[in-house]
Amino acid sequence: MDMDEVLKTFIAESQELLLQMEDALLQLEHTPGDADTINAIFRAAHTIKGSAGLFGLDLIVAFTHIAESVLDRVRSNELQFNAELTALFLQVGDHLARLIALVDAGADLNTLEVEVQATHETLSEQLSYYLAPATAAKPVASQPTRIERGNASGLSADHWHLSLRFGPDTLRNGMDPLGLFRYLNTFGRIVSIVPLLDRLPSAAEMDPETCYLGFEIAFASDADKATIDGTFEFVREDSLIRILPPHSKSDEYLELIRTLPEEDMRLGEILMRCGTLTAAELQEVLLAQVEGQQRDEAQPIGQVLMEQSLVQAPVIAAALQKQQQIKDNRSNENSLIRVDANKLDKLIDLVGELIIAGAGARMTAKNCGHSEMLEATELLSRLVEEVRDSALPLRMVQIGATFNRFQRVVRDVSKEIGKDISLSISGGETELDKSVVERMGDPLTHLVRNAMDHGIESLQTRQANGKPAQGNVCLNACHDGGNIIIEVTDDGGGLDPQRILAKARERGLVSDSQTLTEQEIFNLIFEPGFSTADQVSNLSGRGVGMDVVKRNISALRGTIELSSTLGQGTRVRIRLPLTLAIIDGFLVNVGQAGYVIPLEQVEECIELHSDSAITRGHLELHGQMLPVVRLRELFDDDSTPPRRESVVVVQQGGLRAGLVVDQLVGEFQTVIKPLGKVFAACRVLGGFTILGDGSVALILDIPRLLTQLAAPRSAVPFETKQSYAHE
């Protein structure tokens, strides 16, 4: 076994468990005292502790054990999860994440940095404060007692019901079930015990180191549930343990049935596992069923159980529902398979190469004029397109996980700045490319923090303006054609365009004679170093960030725009492509150069009969004036234009323009490849692709092109004009 790989698995699982712990802690603030949520936090801490022990990470084990002990007191209702304890455990999670990161980096936890060691000691001390000396439970019986092999009546008496299913590795891990029973008798008395032998193999197949047993136990004790549960602390990890208090009602057995493991089980086995039926009773019922079949009076086992008054009808109905649920889930599991992300990326890369190779084969067949080869390549093209359409969705992930990260951000920042702010999330099920999701974390973090610090007003200001005391920040995502829209909205004070303009003129970004539209004024916020904050805080006000946000969004071939209403709030709208890998494109030629336009942004194509049709950079189309860009002039192509040219009308986000080209080639499956640094200055290019003949075509970034074309204050319509057509 490769221990490095096992350690990587531990690190990945621990990071996932810490995220689950954080989500559960934040959930507790809305549903305090929820037992399931508290148990989820406890399980996460316990799993991390157990796994860390396998690698000798004693510091993590000891620290997590203290946290686990506090959680155990919460589970036994000795402590309540209040705001103070929640905040402490959020810090505990952060510290554990830092220790796990140090393990991942190969650091020695025995020699921590001063800051980390100080945090470790402080948190350990704060946790220990909640661990008041525990009072040992008084034994009910001081003398050893005889354990009776019980039956159904014993299990249903006025005792604790312990349902134990030991894991197969219990013995290998050094644990003795009989030792646990002896320990139980130190603070109580086992009244009845029913061994479950249904998993016991034949003698030839039996492994002496494997535990096959399960037990249903009636236990009399004055101890609380936490004390009884603590008996099984070291076997809980791979065992199934259920503890029902005295006077258990049928609804408690129903809940026990619902929490049984997802394993193929017959009805009798389900009832036996939840403790409502013993193995002996099940055997008797099965014999009665066989006898009925011999008399041609066969009855379902559930009916026999009810006739003999062994099990109540609601319990049987719940068991049947559980049985069907297991079958349905098993069917779903069989249709799913985990795939390593690197293998998936490799598949997408190969699909891209397949598209390029297919285009080459199609062009070769066309040049040869061979009809059968042309037909074969057409079939190949259709199959390649199907492969592409099947492969690309595999990279899609929901953005909800990224959105949920901001619950903690909003909580912590709102406390830091002294504001009451909530976070609303919608559209979390929206899917987009995994690589896009991974790179959206930092831009969204800045936008959310900015909305909280600059957008949401103070409590006094909100109350004076008749607003609710609690401000709200909303994250929303939705699809728009081949794009995804992400919006960050707040109900704060909004932006004052006149104040922004005054700051811009003060800094020399805008001259006194320039007249700007409101949208152009808002776009000044994305200028490097621009800020309207009067004071610098820990979060913002330094003029650093919004330009970086825009740059990061642009790197994803996306656009960002801002709208605001003074006194009502601000909305930041981000438009991103669904995928960065492969798109449907429309290929055009200008001179000897090829250009690809994303097909979803092509509205229509028309023939340009004469150059005189274009007046002052505009073309009349359908009764409206359409701005026009000549790609030949844009890229300084000095080739001679043909007598007849074409116009490709493109649109995006309410903006439209016409692109004058020499030739319309047609639709083209486009594998997007990144451009080198030499093209960094040309903002209207989104990448390049390889054509079937091996030549290169540049991919136009239509949103940026339209944005620059719509900027009236620019003396030159585009930021950069260089000769790329023949490079």
UniProtKB/TrEMBL annotation:
MF terms in GO: kinase activity
Domain CheW-like: 582-711
Physiological role: Involved in the transmission of sensory signals from the chemoreceptors to the flagellar motors. CheA is autophosphorylated; it can transfer its phosphate group to either CheB or CheY.
EC number: 2.7.13.3
Record keyword Isomerase present: no
Catalytically driven reaction(s): ATP + protein L-histidine = ADP + protein N-phospho-L-histidine
Residue span, HPt domain: 1-103
Name under which the protein is recorded: Chemotaxis protein CheA
UniProt-listed InterPro entries: Bact_Chemotaxis_CheA, CheA-like_dim, CheA-like_homodim_sf, CheW-like_dom_sf, CheW-lke_dom, HATPase_C_sf, HATPase_dom, His_kinase_dom
Residues with Phosphohistidine modification: 46
The UniProt record lists the keyword Iron-sulfur: no
PANTHER family per UniProt: CHEMOTAXIS PROTEIN CHEA, SENSOR HISTIDINE KINASE CHEA
Entry keyword set: ATP-binding, Chemotaxis, Kinase, Nucleotide-binding, Phosphoprotein, Transferase, Two-component regulatory system
Protein's organism: Pseudomonas cuatrocienegasensis
Limits of the Histidine kinase domain: 373-580
